[in-house]
Amino acid sequence: MTDTAAPPRPESFSRKSTGLVRNVTSLQQLVFNASATNPLGAAMVFGLFALVLFPRANPYIALLAALGLGAFVWMTFALLTSTIPRVGGDYTLNSRILTPWLGFSGSLAIVVSSLIAVGITAWWAGTQGLSPAFSVIGAVNHSQFFTDLGSDLSGGNRGLSFAVAVGVLAAVSALAIAGTRLIMRVVVVLFLIAATGFAVDMLILLFTSSDSFRSTVDSTAGAGSYAKAVSVAQESGVATGGHGYDATSTFGAIYTMLGVTLWVWWGTYTAAEFRGAGQRRRTLATMFGAGWGQGLLLLLALVVFLNTVGADFFTGALSGGFEGGGGAVSTAGYAYFGALVAGGKVIVALLSLAFVGWWVPLLYANQVQAGRSIFAWSLDGLLPSWASSVNERRHTPVAAIAIVFVLASAAAAWVSFSSNFFAIFNTMQLFAYIPIILAGISALILPWRRPELFAGSPADWKVAGVPVLRVAGAGCLAVGVCSPSSVFRFHENLGITGGYFTGMIVALLAVFPLAGLWYFAARSLQRGAGVDLDLAYTEIPPD
Amino acid sequence: MRLGRRRREAEAETASLFFATDIHGSERCFRKFLNAAKFYGVGNLVLGGDITGKTLVPIEQTQRGFSASLLGHDYVDLDTAERGELEARIRDMGRYPVVGERDELDALADEAHMEEVFCTAVVESMRRWVELADERLAGTGIRCFVAPGNDDYWEIDEALRGSEVVEFVEGSRVRLDERHEMITTGYSNRTPWDSPRELDEAELLALLERMYGEVEDPDGLICVFHPPPSGTELDQAPAIDAEFKVVLENGEPKMINVGSTAVRKFFLERQPLLGLHGHVHDSRAEQRLGRTLCLNPGSQYSEGVLMGAIVRLSDSGIASNQFVVG
User: Fold this and answer.
1) Is B28 in contact with A11 (Cβ distance < 8 A)?
2) pTM here?
3) What angle do CA A27, A32, A37 make, to 5 degrees?
4) Closest in A11, A20, A456 to B193, CB measured
5) Strand arrangement of the beta sheet that strand B317-325 belongs to
6) What CA–CA distance (Å, rounded) separates A403 from A376?
7) A206 — contact with chain B (CB < 8 Å)?
8) pLDDT-derived band of residue A331, with 50, 70 and 90 as boundaries?
9) Angle, CA of A130, A134 and A140, to the nearest 5°
10) Which of A297, B91, B254, B279 allows an S-S link to B239, with CB 3.0 to 4.6 Å?
11) Three-class SS of residue B14?
């Protein structure tokens, strides 16, 4: 058959029947996808990690490279999602195309990653949200109480940090159980507050010259504070001034930036909620629009921040060269320094507290992902049926939320009492690459493994004779394999050292046998109950 | 079904069934459905309504060949064999190919004419399906129960009744084994689309009660009611406005209950053993209403994926149930 441009003709005529629903707009779907990934302010924090972990890295090149590499992953998930649009997520896609236990392996890995992410995010709500807020309020108001509180919450008092993390987790879980609409309202309101604060922060920094910023720092923290931080950066070898950027560090920073930009593919989890996900153009537009749109905004924000604040001052401050933050100057510095130069006490408080708003949406996104997977495992018989129980009045998956709360609290304890945050953070990232690797393989073998599904589907697409899915799948697989591999090269930069490094690799590799053991044990138990798990996703021969 | 819910060794399976619903014209799903009994090792097939498709795909005939558009692909100047392949693909997705010259296809813009052409295509397709069912199931001992759903034209009833093996069970009671009877209806409560087989809740409840009156052993009763009970996880669908647009709330589709209050009331009062439902494609779920286990296996007909539920029955009730994606 030929497949070329043709004169316009009506593609179809639909009768009036149940379920005939007009699509939501692409813009609405794009916003939905964007909110499912790292919200901008949080992405800014993660992006600035690159300067901490890879001194003298060029963050702009790293970000652009990450946006380019991410395109392979987005394209793969977009095409697979538009081919199997009524179900969301890597679990179903990989289970149907590969095998159920491999699909489960990827799902188990991403759930482990999400649970750690929920724990970290809850901890961040105190250490990166409340701590800088209190610190800057204390600094501007010369309040020792707030300065000390900020310092304690930054990790100075581990027990307090953990208690705040569990409190935040409990509050978000309670809201999620009380009703999806309620938690979504809270999430949207906090998101809007945080986004407004972010925009104001950036505008303040945009219209503040670097000289003016330096004066503010010196007047707040004492004369010479700015120069002192820069000299600390130079002495520590983390300054770029006069030495230019370092290519090796920039290469390492790409991995960090991928951790910021890659997760737009989580839009696949929401595909089932939106009609039109089966349309390739729409799915691609919404996924790439969200990914590149946020990436561009992040790039602009980085330019503004680093131009005004100065990369050397920032890295110097992070290296202990700035005492004005009461110990709470972290990578959340954009909010800290934006608020600092705002001047007025009220606006300082508002901007600082607005920053706290990022963490609940981020926490909830991860909580939902883990909860949905646990719910799906239970429906498929991989967990007891009570794990998919739903509150009849509120229609919320109570058990799945409770499970996530318990396991994420353990993760919060881990990060609260660990001395190496970045090791845990990168463990979280690494686990999330497993479903990406599997999706790349799924894309590569789909035409042969499920020819009837592929033929004529949105994934059956060639541009200038090149099969897009195959190229995207190969790229996705390469990103999925090479990005974590860079951890081998840069594990010391990432804080993953000694026995922890070995343990992390073992844990990663253990996902597959563990998932296999889990799957086959559940299959054996279910057989005893008259249920054959192998049938769950096995296609019935039509002829 | 789940871990810890083991089937008692002493309990023998008395009957088993595979339930699927809302295949909406997908020929691939129907062919799978006919093979499902053998594949899953069950004795009964139940198709719970909304069997017919919703979309016509025009194939334009010109002097150069046949041309059509499908899922963003433009197929131009196909020969007869290629046209056959394309038609098969269209049917597998639950759509109906309609071949004609440009002016004939343009005439489909007239709604009344389109309805007429649609109905003809649907009935022709149903006749072929019935022939296929007769061919595959005759002499196998497998029973195949079918009821139309709210979206199905009245005209398909005659085709279904003409089958040698397909049992047309709309509004009736059938016995599966000594312990289990089944009552079936494809009627739904009112929808915004004003589909052919809709009833007010009171009328629907009366229909359910009429069928219940014929049941001899209510403890083992299986209810195949196209709409799920209202207020459950089986009937969650996006709210739509007057223009059939999804209503968003906080950036997400606003979900509401669209099931039947009559079905819910019936279940709470009569407490049958099992409720099998469809109607709401994306609300795949199982939930108990008191004693009654309610299942909605969902539907992904347009991808040719047959979603269903396997249920194995014993003297004491449901031995096991499992959702499958076939």
Assistant:
1) no
2) 0.81
3) 125
4) A20
5) B166-168, B143-146, B44-47, B13-20, B307-314, B317-325
6) 14
7) no
8) low
9) 150
10) B254
11) strand
pLDDT above 90 covers a percentage of chain A that reads: 31
Question: A442 vs A387, A459, B7, CA distance in Å?
Answer: 28, 12, 36
For residues A317 and A325, the answer to whether their CB atoms sit within 8 Å is yes
Read out DSSP for B24-88?
TT-HHHHHHHHHHHHHHT-SEEEE-S--S--EEEEEEEETTEEEEEETTEEEEEE-HHHHHHHHH
Whether the CB-CB separation of B275 and B292 falls below 8 Å is answered with yes
- Cβ-Cβ contacts under 8 Å, B320 against chain A: 529-531
Q: Is A223 on the interface with B (CB under 8 A)?
A: no
Q: Give which of A241, A193, A233, A523 is closest to A352, Cα–Cα.
A: A193
DSSP helix/strand/coil, A296: helix
pLDDT average, residue stretch A167-195: 88
Interchain CB contacts (distance < 8 Å): A and B: 233
A496: left (phi over 0), alpha (psi -120 to 50) or beta: beta
- Backbone φ and ψ for B101, nearest 5 degrees, come out as -80, 170
Residues present in chain B in total: 326
Q: Among the listed ranges A282-286, A427-431, B15-19, which one has the minimum average pLDDT value?
A: A282-286
What is the DSSP secondary structure assignment for residue A251, as one 8-state letter?
Answer: H
Separation CA A84–CA A454 (nearest Å): 10
pLDDT for B181 equals 96
The residue type at B125: S
Ordered DSSP codes for A24-43: PPHHHHHHHHHHHS--HHHH
Q: Which amino acid is at A537?
A: Y
Cα separation of A69 and A71, whole Å?
A: 5
pLDDT digits (tens, 9 = 90+) for B101-112: 998 998 888 888
Encode pLDDT of A340-358 as tens digits: 787 667 777 788 788 888 8
pLDDT: is A417 or A51 the higher one?
A417
Candidate from A97-101, A332-336, A485-489 with smallest mean pLDDT: A332-336
Amino acid sitting at position B291? R
Q: Does A518 touch chain B (CB under 8 A)?
A: no
Per CB-CB distance under 8 Å, the chain B contacts of A452 are 28, 92, 304
SS3 (DSSP) at B188: strand
- Nearest chain A residue (CA) to B90: A456
CB contact (8 A) between residue A3 and residue B74: yes
Helix (H) or strand (E) holding A541: none
- The CA–CA distances, whole Å, from B158 to B130, B144, B153, B197 equal 11, 16, 11, 16
Tokens at residue A441, please?
Answer: 């393989």
